[in-house]
Amino acid sequence: MRVISYNLRKHKASGELEALARDYDIDALCLQECDTEDLPESIAGLHLADATRGNRLGLAIYYRKERFTAGETKTFALKKSLHDRVLAPAHERLIGTRVVDNETDHDLVIASFHAAPLTASNSLRRNQIHAAHAELLSMGGGLMTLMVGDFNYPFFTEYLTQQMKDAGYELSLSDRRTYTRYKVFKGHFDFATSQGLMIESVETLPRGASDHLPILISAEYGQDAPGSVSGPETGT
């Protein structure tokens, strides 16, 4: 399974989506900071599952119909930062879609997440991440989950990794930094958390019009994942 996550920087990088979806042969596309009223129903064979409605900086998920059958999509509001209360950039910071893999019959949730900006504390962002995982559980307990997006968490990721491990999730950073606009804020802003999946790689893709670089997540189903058939392990 190949998924791209991309913060479009207030929709500025929207013109790159067709080429990204085509060139990297992806199965799903998770967006942050998009203008949801300007999103097409399909992008290079990917179908729009749904998008947030009340956000100035919207979220959206696209999926490949040949690969997945989509079920419900839900959007969620998370704990607000002071930035959210004053400027109201994002009422909903999480969108998740439950899908069935037509090739393997696996049932999973794919989610796009956008944490509060760096004006908020790491503690608040950790609260949002934990709350996001809890909300996704409401879409089906025990399902495999892949949550990707802009976590706005470039510092002290070792502590966050341990927090995720204690909660039963794997945190996967990309091979290179995903944000380099300001010298002081260089780092891994965009990454993935997962449960029940084997993350093979998270690759930072070339820079486009956004201040964030897109990331490409490659994942496999583990032998013990729900819906797996017995046989040799497929992961690495």
In short:
The chain is an alpha+beta fold.
List the helices and strands and how they pair.
Blueprint: E1 2-7, H1 17-23, E2 28-34, E3 42-43, E4 46-51, E5 58-64, E6 68-76, H2 82-87, E7 94-101, E8 107-114, H3 122-137, E9 144-150, H4 157-166, E10 170-172, E11 190-195, E12 197-204, E13 215-221
Parallel strand pairs: 1-2, 8-9
Antiparallel strand pairs: 1-13, 2-5, 3-4, 4-5, 6-7, 7-8, 9-11, 10-11, 12-13
Q: Give the distance, in angstroms, between the N- and C-terminal Cα atoms.
A: 14 Å
CATH class group: Alpha Beta
Q: How many structural units, i.e. domains?
A: 1
Mean residue pLDDT: 88
The name of the CATH architecture is: 4-Layer Sandwich
Query: Structural class of the helix and strand makeup?
Result: alpha+beta
Number of strands: 13
Helical region count? 4
Q: What is the helical fraction, as a range of percent?
A: 10-25%
Shape: globular
Order of helices and strands: EHEEEEEHEEHEHEEEE
